[in-house]
Amino acid sequence: MSVLRKTSRRLADGREIVYFDDTPDAPERTADDTRDLPEVTAASEIRRDPLTGEWVAMAAHRQTRTYKPPADLCPLCPSSPGTPSEVPESDYDVVVFENRFPSFAERVDGTGETTVDGAGIVPSAPGTGRCEVVCFTSDHAGSFGELSRERVRTVVDVWADRTAALSRLDGVRQVFPFENRGEEIGVTLSHPHGQIYGYPFVTPRTERMLATAEEYREHHGRHVLGDVLAAERDSGERVVAEGEHWTAFVPPAARWPVQVQVVPHRQVSDLTELTGAERDDFARVYLQVLGRCDGLYGKPLPYVAGWYQAPRDTDPELSWLHLELLSVLRSADKLKYLAGSESGMAVWINDATPEQIARRLREAGGTGEAGGVAGTGAATG
Fold this sequence. Notes:
alpha+beta; eleven-stranded antiparallel sheet; four-stranded antiparallel sheet; about 25% helix
């Protein structure tokens, strides 16, 4: 693993941009943003649903965000003469910058919690937080699954760096690094990139997982994901890829047509706690997972992949870091729509069993770099 060099700069409107270079001879990052940009005015708001207790973000300013630009005008590509972009340099390894159209931002209007109706039924507060864009490569036509192991390791280090940075910000309760891939998911910029959200609250799914973990610990004295992981490794029926420190498997109650959880064998609460060996092994296992996903239908799989980490001010022993990848594609030409039961009642109905999904992924093969034969229940990393 080469030494990772970090350089922080500012864009024309004051947003931070951070370069992470793993190439030994990468130039110093000194290019200025030559664009004439207005100051970012993100006036997002959060409101709590009085019937469910869940927070919802209102970010009307995002209606004007960039939408499917032509490749030669991609704002995530490096800048070139006459075509300045969000990245002033002419090339980069991995780069992170504050989102120009953030759902949550440090610079927001309003102070403190109020109510929408004046009666206290619908609490409202500024959408304080931070949203960042992570560009995994300067290659517009590339993908995460085509990165080298070394570059994936760099991205893991970047996720850990940003998790630490965002967790220190006032008002941020939970940090969520994720990647959306494919038009079927709703992606409007095709350049290989992800995002990192610093939420001002604990997300509903995380709250549910923490409550379940606490209840399970009270009855069994152990973490529920640890017991699930042990059972999956022992059975191997739903295992997709396995290494020395990580196992990827289809969850036994999978909701989505394609769904894979990538779980470390050691309980850690967030990405900052991973060792160098664990980060290296994740790169091997995850590349194999992505290779199998792209081999499933013989074309790039649209997906959402995100990290579940411990929120601030919660018992870290209730969290077990893991990545979850899901796709809405249920066949080569059919999408899974969230219709009445899923959208109305949050009750998922899957058209395939988790065992079928895992078997298809194993049979798909793929070009990922990870070693080991998935589905045996034995670590082969």
